[in-house]
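Entry — protein

Goal — fold tokens:
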Amino acid sequence: MDLYYHPISPPCWAVLLLGRELNLTFNLKVIDNSVQGAARETFVKFNPQHQVPTLVDGDFAIGESRAILSYLMDAHAGSDDHPLYPRAPKSRALIQHRLNFDLGMLYRRAYDYFSPIWRSGTIGTDADREKLREALGFLEEYLGRSEYAAGDRLTIADLALVASVSFMDVCRFEELASYPKVSTWYERCREELKGYQEAVADQFSDARAFIEQFK
């Protein structure tokens, strides 16, 4: 399988984490602004939105990290009732809710708050910050109901969410400490996910260097 990605992209981190959990091998293809010509055209053919990650599995291509997580579980987990994505309808519904919460709220608001740094050199507005705090408050509440984001076992929802919280950590969002359940869960995931150090933590310095150049 080819995975078009960038090593400091949080959504890509989630896919890499699942790859390690399932012992999958990806043919990694880095996509950045230096990739042009035929290589860029090939990538755009697979994903007209020009976004990473994009997975190509034989004649099938799909973008959006959370969709990729679900696809990999369905196609390559070796079981249709894997603990990371259990088959029970209520369990899957909760996992899908948390994935959509990450896509539409947690990561979206983190990106909206921090991404102005590499456009204008400053973070977002106070209103953007409060929206991010609200999203973290929701995650804090969810983690008050269960040990992990979508129940009492690690699932692909945790992989997506931990990538988003890692993004906040990279950006040195000190207010993370104000959410004790999120902080405890974050540290637990960092310790339990066997690919976290290589796929995520080892990229922190490069990610921070990328951000610092715009300040």
Remarks:
- The domain at 2-77 is CATH 3.40.30.10 (Glutaredoxin).
- The chain has two domains: 2-77, 89-212.
- Residues 147 and 153 are 7 Å apart (CA to CA).
